[in-house]
Design a protein that fits this description.
4 domains, five-stranded antiparallel β-sheet, Beta-Lactamase, Rossmann fold, alpha/beta, 590 residues
Length: 590
């Protein structure tokens, strides 16, 4: 009941009426509960009036009543309290609002003298109580409006606090009017610290005050502010508050710049979650590697992936990321060999505005900042220039970067996964790679075996590619011929899985028969078909010897014939150097 919320005001009105008229006053709500009263009715505040009384009739009909003969008049005939009634005369007037009748105000005479005066001044009293009723109606409307405004204020505050970005408002004197909970939490401020402060006292330098000075809107501007000694980067928009064609303040919204950049990268990144189950291959040595990597995926440590080109190092890196606690953050692959030396520092670490000629006037956020909270995959880490190796070492040790032209370090929380096909130990010995960085990266080295070391996976992987490319190129092949299978198994694959993928796609495109044949694949391989293998002739010993010879020949072409190259080939084949020399002699390759 709205009259309950006006009890203090209504009591004052009742006492004012009594002091002017000398008559007692009572005010009731729609349930006949007394909200205010004077004299005999003061003690009955909170209690209900009698049923079927004149007050109830006034509430039901909305009409005014003047009673000069209580208890005997028609209006009092059904009143349940007439036996105890001591009233001599009364006037009842309804209290109205936009919702209807809210209550009733009554003026009552209890003595013959009061009744006599009442009858003489009946018209004046009726007019007076009518005015008082309208005054109460105005108070109800005012209270209702206040409640609406209070609700809207709470609603607006709730909306502002629920927004996942900062919102502040200032008046034309730069005094803080509002700062939402997101902004206070990010900046580490309390309501008490903001009370009575100007925005300049909170943010030493800001663009919001420029809005007051220029009356122009600021939109999506990078803002760097310091609060309590800490530096924050935001993307800020601000506009003036105009009331009656006059500027009365400004309101601004700001978003964490790094969070925004990460969101953009997460949207642009491959949305497919890549897990270990999607890495093809079930050979024992490859299964063991997958299990090792699966074990360290959720441990926030640096990983170094070693292996030849095309072995799937990036696939493993993605699987590690999606198997870690950072799975919902950015996975950012960077090919260290694909970025020119002159640009690599600004690409990785970013630069401040005006850092060098040709730099963007707004500055640039580097890749490490953009991936904050996520995983950075540094592919071909062996191609990273020496001067950048020092800076990467600082990232690994201190978890911070410094932009080009910047003075203040910026904290970053990233996991580094590096990969290379080169021998970093040899590069360290030659002075081409920093030893301290090597040991920081080499916390968990994982060597991914080449395809020739897991031949039982070849046909499984080939079948997946066949299904993919027959559908992609709209071909209707029934499968792969036996000769083609033998050819695929005999090949050494210096390009590893990537080479197998290209080989199958080529075969699907140019195959004219129902089965993928060896003749079609040989055209892509650039070598003559071996009759023994193709026809399935010769014993197992001859076939094994042929496989070994092809493998070693391809490795010699890839790495060379010097002693160091042969030592490396032996390590890759997981045999001793003496065994390799023996096989070279047996296969007439020495």
């Amino acid at each position: 009941m709205i009259l309950d919320k006006l009890q203090n005001e209504l009591q004052e009105i009742a006492e004012a009426i009594m002091s002017v008229t000398g008559l007692d006053v009572t005010i009731l709500d729609r349930s006949l509960k007394r909200i205010a009263g004077t004299g005999k009715y003061y003690e009955r505040i909170g209690k209900h009036a009698a049923k079927n009384s004149v007050f109830e009739k006034c509430l039901n009909t909305g009409k005014q009543y003047v009673i000069t003969e209580p208890r005997t008049c028609d209006e009092c005939f059904e009143c349940s309290g007439k036996e105890n009634c001591r009233e001599e005369a009364e006037v009842c007037y309804p209290i109205e609002s936009d919702r209807g009748i809210e209550g009733v105000v009554g003026m009552i005479a209890f003595t013959p003298e009061q009744k006599k005066d009442f009858l003489q001044k009946k018209r004046q009293y009726l007019n007076f109580v009518s005015r008082m009723s309208k005054l109460i109606s105005s108070s109800i409307k005012e209270k209702a409006l206040h409640q609406v405004l209070e609700y809207k204020s709470i609603e607006l505050r709730t909306i502002i606090d629920s927004v996942n970005e900062g919102i502040i408002a200032i008046d034309d004197n730069r005094r803080m009017l509002c700062m939402n909970s997101w902004a206070r939490e990010v900046l580490g401020l309390t309501k008490e610290e903001l009370a009575g402060k100007t925005i300049d006292e909170i943010f030493s330098k800001n663009s919001v005050t420029e809005v007051l000075l220029t009356n122009k809107e600021v939109k999506d501007q990078e803002e760097v502010v310091k609060v309590k000694g800490k530096t924050y980067r935001f993307l800020l928009s601000a506009k003036p508050i105009i009331f009656n064609k006059k500027q009365t303040g400004a309101v601004a919204s700001f978003t964490d710049f790094n969070d925004l950049q990460r969101s953009i990268y997460k949207i642009s990144d491959n949305p497919e979650t890549f897990t270990f189950d999607k890495i093809l291959g079930n050979s024992p040595n490859f299964t063991m590697i997958k299990e090792q990597v699966r074990q360290i995926a959720n441990q926030d440590i640096t990983v170094l992936l070693l292996g030849e080109s095309g072995t799937g190092k990036e696939l493993f890196a993605r699987a590690i990321h999606y198997g870690s606690k950072r799975r919902n953050e950015v996975f950012l692959p960077i090919n260290c060999g694909a970025i020119p030396d002159s640009l690599i520092e600004s690409e990785l670490f970013g630069y401040e505005k005006g850092a060098f000629t040709g730099a963007s006037p707004k500055g640039k956020v580097g890749k490490f900042e953009r991936a904050n909270g996520g995983t950075v995959f540094l592919d071909e880490i062996g191609d990273l220039p020496l001067h950048m190796q020092v800076k990467l070492l600082r990232v690994l040790q201190e978890k911070e970067i410094t932009r080009v032209g910047g003075l203040s370090p910026i904290k970053v929380d990233i996991r580094i996964i590096a990969a290379t096909h080169r021998d970093l130990r040899v590069m360290v010995q030659r002075g081409e790679f920093r030893e301290d960085l090597f040991y920081r990266l080499n916390v968990v080295p994982i060597r991914i075996p080449p395809l020739r070391e897991r031949r039982q996976d070849i046909l499984e992987i080939a079948e997946v590619f066949i299904q993919r490319y027959t559908k992609l190129h709209d071909k209707d092949l029934r499968g792969i011929s036996k000769e083609a299978e033998e050819l695929l198994l005999s090949h050494s694959y210096p390009g590893n899985v990537r080479e197998l993928q290209n080989l199958i796609e080529y075969g699907i495109i140019f195959e004219k028969g129902e089965f993928l044949t060896a003749e079609t694949l040989i055209k892509k391989m650039g070598r003559k078909k071996d009759s023994n293998i193709a026809l399935g002739k010769g014993g197992l010993k001859d076939m094994v010897a042929k496989y070994e010879k092809d493998i070693i020949e391809d490795l010699l072409k890839n790495y060379g014939h010097d002693t160091e190259a042969k030592q490396k080939i032996a390590r890759q084949l997981q045999i001793s150097t003496a065994t390799l020399y023996r096989k070279l002699k047996e296969l007439s390759l020495s």
